[in-house]
Amino acid sequence: MTWHWRLIQRECTGCGICADVCTYGAIAMDRLTAYPAAVPGACVGCMICVEECPFAALEVLPSEALTAGGRFASAGGGV
Q1: Are 8 and 76 in contact, with CB atoms under 8 Å apart?
Q2: Does 40 fall in a domain?
Q3: Would you say residue 79 lies in a domain?
Q4: Residue 78 falls inside a structural domain
Q5: For 49-64, how does the pLDDT look when each residue is reduced to its tens digit (9 = 90+)?
Q6: What is the mean pLDDT of the chain?
Q7: Contact predicate 68/53, CB 8 Å
Q8: pTM for this one?
Q9: Residues 6+ apart with CB under 8 A from 11
Q10: Is residue 42 very low, low, confident or very high in pLDDT (cuts 50, 70, 90)?
């Protein structure tokens, strides 16, 4: 099973904790936006980013939750 994470941007402060704790390299900080960015195919669904984010700004879902256009099926405020 493949996994994807999504950012709930309205909750994110750009602190970078998620990128620091991700041992699989699935999250990189975007220098232009100062927000976390996904590294395609790297997320294994371990949820450490979700557990460590003090702002509850991340969700991790299986790839089946993505629509054909690559967006998550539920609105939920993610990016």
Answers
A1: yes
A2: yes
A3: no
A4: no
A5: 999 999 999 999 887 7
A6: 85
A7: no
A8: 0.78
A9: 55, 56, 57
A10: very high
| Tokens coding 33 | 């936006």
Tokens 């402060």, located at residue: 13
DSSP single-letter state for residue 66: B
73 within domain boundaries: no
Q: Is 45 left (phi over 0), alpha (psi -120 to 50) or beta?
A: left
Closest listed residue to residue 4, CA positions, set 51, 46, 34: 46
Pair 49, 38: CB distance under 8 Å: no
Contact 53, 17 (CB under 8 A): yes
pLDDT at 79 over 80: no
Task: Give the CA count within 13 Å in the CB-facing half-sphere of 66.
Answer: 15
Interval 17-40 mean pLDDT: 94
Given a contact cutoff of 8 angstroms between Cβ atoms, the answer to whether 27 and 35 are in contact is: no
